[in-house]
Write a structure and sequence with these properties.
alpha/beta, seven-stranded parallel sheet, 13% strand
Length: 245
C-alpha cells in the first residue's frame, strides 16, 4: 500500500515542491491550503496529468475545528497519515517598534498554533495508535539566528524549533520521529520583496554564491521521511548555502 503525506501550505513555493517530491516517490499526497485555491487546483491538475495520486484540502490551520475535519477527511480517504509536513507559514518585514499585537498574534497563529493543531490532531487520530510516523516541521535560519526587520517571524520560527525538539523526546518511545528543516533564503514569493541589487548583495555573502531553490529543500524533507533517516530525530537541518554554519 502506498504511503500518505499531508503537507500544510502546499499550494505553492516550498510546499508545492515538497508535494511534487513525494508524489514522484509514490506517495498519496494531501495538499492543504487556506486561501490559495487557484494554485492548489493547478498543482493537483499537474499531478493528476502525470498520474500521481493527490487530494486538496482547504483549512485554516489556526482553527482547530477545520484542522480536525481535514485530518478526518484524509483518514477517511487514505486510511493513514504516514508523514506530516508542517510547512504553512507567513512572512512580514517590519521594524520591531511598528509590529502590532495583531501582527505577532497572526504570525504565531499560523506558524506555531497551526503547527500545534495539525500535529496534535494527526498524533491523536493515527500516529500514536499505530506507533509510527514522521513529522517534519519547516522553520527557517532566522529561527536559528534571528533576522533584523523580522522579529515576529524569527520568534515564530524559533518556537517551531523548540516545539520540535521537545516533541521528538516525547514521541521517540512511540516510534515517531520529529525533525526540522530550516531553509536559508529561497527563491519563492516570500523573498520577492528583494530587489535584484539586494539579492545580488545577499548572494555575495553566501559561500555557495546563490539563493536557494525549492528543490534544495524538498529533497531534504523527503530524506527525513525515508527509511534511511529512521535514527534521526530532534534535529535541525539547515539547507542555507553555508551562510549559517
Amino acid at each position: 500500500m502506498n504511503k500518505t503525506v499531508l503537507i500544510t501550505g502546499a499550494a505553492k513555493g516550498i510546499g508545492a515542491a515538497i508535494a511534487k517530491e513525494f508524489a514522484r516517490s509514490g506517495y498519496q499526497v494531501c495538499i492543504n491550503y487556506n486561501t490559495s485555491k487557484e494554485s492548489a487546483n493547478a498543482l493537483k491538475k499537474e499531478l493528476d496529468e502525470i498520474g500521481y495520486s493527490s487530494m486538496i484540502y482547504q483549512a485554516d490551520i489556526s482553527d482547530r475545528n477545520q484542522v480536525d475535519k481535514m485530518v478526518d477527511s484524509v483518514l477517511d480517504t487514505f486510511g493513514n497519515i504516514d508523514v506530516l509536513v508542517n510547512n504553512a507559514g507567513i512572512c512580514e518585514y517590519k521594524l520591531f517598534t511598528d509590529i502590532t499585537i495583531e501582527d505577532i498574534q497572526n504570525m504565531l497563529n499560523v506558524s506555531v498554533i497551526g503547527t500545534f493543531h495539525v500535529t496534535q490532531s494527526v498524533l491523536k487520530k493515527c500516529m500514536i495508535h499505530k506507533k509510527a510516523g514522521k513529522i517534519i516541521n519547516i522553520s527557517s535560519i532566522w529561527g536559528m539566528v534571528g533576522s533584523s526587520m523580522e522579529v515576529n517571524y524569527s520568534t515564530a520560527k524559533a518556537a517551531v524549533i523548540g516545539m520540535s525538539k521537545a516533541l521528538a523526546k516525547e514521541l521517540g518511545p512511540s516510534g515517531i520521529t520529529v525533525n526540522v528543516v530550516a531553509p536559508g533564503a529561497i527563491d519563492t514569493d516570500m523573498n520577492a520583496i528583494l530587489t535584484q541589487e539586494e539579492l545580488k548583495e545577499f548572494c555575495e555573502n553566501v559561500p555557495l554564491e546563490r539563493i536557494g531553490h525549492v528543490d534544495d529543500i524538498s529533497g531534504v524533507v523527503k530524506f527525513l521521511a525515508s527509511k534511511e533517516a529512521e535514527y534521526i530525530t530532534g534535529q535541525v537541518i539547515s539547507p542555507n548555502g553555508g551562510i549559517v554554519v
